[in-house]
Amino acid sequence: xxxxxxxxxxxxxxxxxxxxxxxxxxxxxxxxxxxxxxxxxxxxxxxxxxxxxxxxxxxxxxxxxxxxxxxxxxxxxxxxxxxxxxxxxxxxxxxxxxxxxxxxxxxxxxxxxxxxxxxxxxxxxxxxxxxxxxxxxxxxxxxxxxxxxxxxxxxxxxxxxxxxxxxxxxxxxx
Length: 174
Known about the structure:
Blueprint: E1 7-9, E2 16-19, H1 23-29, E3 34-36, E4 42-46, E5 52-57, E6 68-70, H2 73-77, E7 82-83, E8 89-94, E9 97-101, E10 108-112, E11 118-125, E12 128-134, E13 148-150, H3 157-167, E14 169-172
Parallel strand pairs: 6-13, 8-14
Antiparallel strand pairs: 1-2, 2-3, 4-5, 5-8, 7-12, 9-10, 10-11, 11-12, 12-14
């Protein structure tokens, strides 16, 4: 359920709303976090500067998605908490993305060129770009399950690809 405090309808359409944070959060992020109200498993967010919009739909309930926090040196230097599900569809709409590769260079970490926020991590598996999205892009919305720490650095390349093929959704727009 959405909290009743700081909940505001946008225009007369009951389908769209946003949850506002403190004024300092609002000023820092300079964006609104939007939630699609008519479908519990659809959510939208943006990067910090607003250049990229992220649209996610998934068959699972959002509270069944546990943000995963990787403990490798790269991810500690670029904090994020990714969510994914094999039924997830991630659409990124915006400007120019840059990417980094880490470790075994299997996956690409897509970032906003302007603010540097991690948008998603992705890899071609079976000819399809599959990926996980940064849950931090959804701002004050905390409808996700409890975060869990992961250690993909302990898996070999084949194990990573097999795991990602089971857990990651379809990634579009990068």
